Amino acid sequence: MDVHVRGSGAVEPFLAARDLLETEYDLELPVIVKIREDPDERTMAGHYDDRHELLVSRRAATSAMARELALHEFAHMARYEEGHPSHVQSTEEALFLALAGRSVERRKLSQCYQIANHMKDIYADDITLDIGPTGKLVDFMESSLAAALAETPPPAPGEWTHETASADPEITAVNAAFALALLERHGAIEEEHRLYDLADAAAADAPGVSLSRFKQHFRSLVEDPGESEYRKALVEVTREYTLSGGTRAAD
Known about the structure:
By secondary structure, the protein is α/β, with parallel strands linked by helices. Helix content is about 55%, strand content about 10%.
């Protein structure tokens, strides 16, 4: 597995992630890592005929999670090369099937793509949690959910739900379900962990979203699905989300 790091920054996290991946997996195509100044996009991976590319902000490349983030993206590349349905099927096609004949607001549509990415992440992290340490990931998910909850203002009097550009309660609840599902899937979290309390708080902020149902959607994804099986799972979770909390006309 060839990894080439371009830009000003340490190469060690990426080489360490490569070494971890190579204990169980390999990539046929080389990986070009490009470190850039833009801090807004933590990581972004692209796949081409002759290479994979990983764009990483300098902030992410120098963070305590740099190796884990790189390993996560390398795992996505491994899933892509093996032709896993979650990584080669068209997300747009599945969402079209799920939403045909329905009017969905732009906010929820963009969040459906985020949910589809969660499903990809489940399969990528089946690799990372199998070969790498889990402690940092658990701490990262806990801090991320806590931050999202802190950004969500209390509801106005008489209102059940509230929305902000920074922290939408409905997708925050789904994100909590994803975190628990992933960690439970690999036995990486204890029953009394604080993440469960944070997830309950997220669920309370979004009473129209079933934390348990979305957790079951993510946790029960089969390891090696066929194309139609994976498409069906994505269609089901998309339909459930667009119906949660009520629906409104598209923007």
